[in-house]
Amino acid sequence: MKKMEKTILSLIVAILFFAGGFTGAILKVSGYSETQIGISPSGQTVSTGETFTVNIEIDPAEPIAGAQCNLHFNSSLLNALSVSDGGMFDMWFNGILSIDNTNGTIENIIAFDLGGTTSDSGVFAVVTFQAKSASGTSYVNLSDVGISDENGSPVAVSISNGSVTITAGNMPPTAEITSAPSGTINYRNVNFEWTGSDDSTPVSNLLYSYKLEGYDSSWSSWTSSTSKAYNGLLEGSYTFMVKAKDSEGLIGSADTASFTVEDTTPPSISNVHVSPDPQITGGYVNISCSVTDDFSVDNVKINITYPDNSSFNYSMTHGSSKYYYNSIFTDIGEYDFTIWASDGSGNGNTYSGTFSIMGGDFTPPSISNVVATPPVQDAGKTVRISATVTDNAGVADVFLNISYPDGTYENFSITANVTGHTYYCEKPYTQLGTYPFTIYAVDDAGNSNESSSSFSIEDNTPPEISDVEANPPQASPGNAINISATVTDNAGVADVFLNISYPDGTYHNFSLKQNVTSNTTYYCSNSYNKLGVYNFTIYAVDDSGNGNKSSSSFLIKDNTPPKVRVIYPNGGESVSGTVTIRWNATDNYDEENELKVTIKYSADAGTSWHTIASSEDNTGEYDWNTSALEDGKQYLIKISVKDLSNNQGVDISNATFIVDNTKPSLVLEKPRHNHLYLFDREVMPILRSRAIVIGKITVTANATDATSGVDRVEFFVDGTSKSVDSSKPYEWEWDEMTFTSHVLKVVAYDNAGNSVYEELDVKVYNI
To answer: In whole angstroms, what is the distance from residue 667 CA to residue 678 CA?
Structure first.
């Protein structure tokens, strides 16, 4: 074993010596055609700031084992970002690779095969550049090229260099505001205009987006319009912004215009009206006006100076379109008034005027709008008698004289509403016939007036049937059912009877009993044996022959619910994919195959339930697809079973279970592809899409599962299971004699049955 280790170590040292020590020019050897090495593409054009790549490609004239070179470029035009393996050789050696963007050089680009050669054309290396802001053409030249055969001897080469041309990129468009308000303005409607320009897109094809800070919450959609108007702006500071976009999709910076809206104009007071002027002492005077403001009216008041020079301030009321103030004035003489209005910014305005109050009252009260509502009413229901009564000085009393159909009459004062102008009374009346009535009004000066009308009382209303009830609405055979209803009538109830239809089609008709303590309640109490629905109708007739009816029903049924038990999942499980829910359900009356099953789940400890299946046959199991559920949450299952009488039995799983439909996370940490291992130690990366193992190796995997946890990790070689590890660290020592390639497969399983695997091609040399 020690002899083999020394042999392999000597081979690695020889390879590294070749990679680090093979430099200098390569001579052309007689008798061989030349191996081609060059830049691809040989010429390309890029834009300023663009990132791009060039390839160093080799076309072998004979089998070759490795190559190295340096690269030169114009550092004022290009910036080298990285050099990466082109994949042509096994080993990419970047230990002494050097990038110098100051002098424009890349040195020691090296790659070689591990004990083999290649005759196929390919990419030796990939160089990534970024174009600088300057324009021009940069050379991309190779130097110090060395390519060797399998014996380490140099081969003849022919070099082809390249170039890169840099052009300036497109400039974004500009937008310029040509018309906008500025500074402080005292108006609310504003307009903006703008124009644009671009180095390539015609102005007519430019698009614009705008926004008014302080008004708009977001930028507008792109538009070809070059103006925008805003109306009704509030007081405050605003900034208008507009930006342009050209046909290439480039967007320029925004142009801005700022301004402030302030209210400096006071409200306008107009249409001032005093009514009546002059007025008689003790009468109402109404003062009204219109107040408008370009922003908003804040306050409107009136100051009234009385004939004795006393003065008082009052707030004016805002109606639908005007401000007004009304009051009774008793002092005879001239009154001065001033209306004062202010807006929200404190700007104020005034208007002054006068009105007069005269002595004497010879005018009787005015009676209008005399009405009985409704003019024809049912017996026992309310009639509202009302009238509008006004007087220039003051109303002293309003009373009503009403004559009944039996010749009696009644005389009494009636009440004024809160505004003081409408007088009314509301009373029920039971005598059938016509009721003439007269309203009398007297003012403070003894002036009087009267107005007459009438209304009628009839009986056209059938009895009212309410609270129709079968108690209980559902019962077992032989149990008593109490049927009851409340029956009332404005005149009098003559009879109440019941018609009841049985489930077999027969029926029964009889009068109901009247409750002795509540003469409006009618009832009967009987027991019933036939299963099914009993429909019944209660009929009522009053003394005038008006009739009414009301229907309902009750049910005689089996009231014992089925028994059900959840079998699986019943708590503590971790499940995934399609889960077979299992239960057991029986019933005392119906056959098991007549039962209907509803299945639900809860993800919040039973606070809310979601239907899985509804009205399923009672088969004892149901396949549930859990793929749409959230992983890691705690779930419950609820099984509800109904019999033919709609009785329902319910069972819920004893405890919660977990749904986990996410595969575990698995990383094959050792061995890794493109790496060489020597007696269980990682030596170096290699340019092969597989791992090379010399001697034994400990296969190591990292498996995790945040939801249900990892159950086990299984190791396979060429499809044959070799080991199962159920605890961390997950590993297996592979120590079998072999000198060939294998497929190593590692599979991780979680506790819900989900699995994931990784495969790796491995070439093993182990004695």
So the answer is: 21
Q: Which of 695, 705, 761, 767 is nearest to 733 (CA)?
A: 695
Which among 337, 647, 294 is positioned nearest to 474, based on CA atoms? 647
List, in sequence order, every residue forming a beta bridge with 703; answer none if it has no partner: 666
Using an 8 Å Cβ cutoff, are 174 and 198 in contact? yes
- What are the mean pLDDT values of the chain's consecutive 10-residue runs (767 residues total)? 39 37 36 84 86 95 94 95 93 90 95 86 96 86 92 90 83 90 92 89 93 95 96 92 90 93 91 89 88 89 94 90 90 93 89 87 86 91 93 87 94 85 91 93 87 91 93 87 92 91 93 88 91 93 90 88 94 91 88 91 92 93 92 92 90 92 92 89 78 92 92 95 94 90 94 92 87
| Interatomic CA distance for residues 673 and 11, integer angstroms | 21
Q: What's the one-letter identity of residue 675? A: H
407 contacts: CB under 8 Å, gap ≥ 6 = none
Give the helix/strand (H/E) hosting 553: strand 547-556
373 touches 383 (CB < 8 A) = yes
Q: What is the dihedral of CA 203, 167, 44, 96, to 10 degrees?
A: -130
**Token pair in block for residue 99:** 């990038």
49, 64 contact by CB (below 8 A): no
Q: How many helices (H) and strands (E) does the chain have?
A: 1, 65
Domains, the chain, in order of start with CATH, read: 13-167 (2.60.40.680), 174-261 (2.60.40.10), 268-358 (2.60.40.1930), 366-458 (2.60.40.1930), 477-542 (2.60.40), 563-659 (2.60.40.10), 665-765 (2.60.40.10)
Q: For the chain, how big is the Rg over CA atoms in Å?
A: 51
Q: What single-letter amino acid sits at 540?
A: A
Instruction: Give the whole-angstrom CA distance, residue 461 versus residue 544.
Output: 9
Residue 336, classed as helix, strand or coil, is strand
AA identity, residue 205: N
| Residue from 757, 661, 667 nearest 707 by CA | 661
Checking DSSP bridges between strand 279-280 and strand 348-358, what pairing results, if any? parallel
* Dihedral of the alpha carbons of 26, 27, 32, 38, in degrees to the nearest 10: 40
CA dist., res. 92 & res. 82, Å (int): 14
Give the SS3 label for residue 446: coil
CB 576 within 8 A of CB 617: no
- What is the C-alpha separation between 461 and 489, in angstroms, rounded? 8
List of residues 6+ apart from 238 with CB closer than 8 A: 212, 213, 214, 215, 258, 259, 260, 261
Two tokens, residue 220: 């507008």
Q: Quick one: tokens of 403?
A: 């004559």
Strand partners of residue 384: 373, 426
What residue type is assigned to position 286 of the chain?
N
* In contact, 365 and 441? CB cutoff 8 Å: yes
Tell me phi and psi for residue 615, to 5 degrees: 55, 45
- Whole-model pTM: value is 0.34
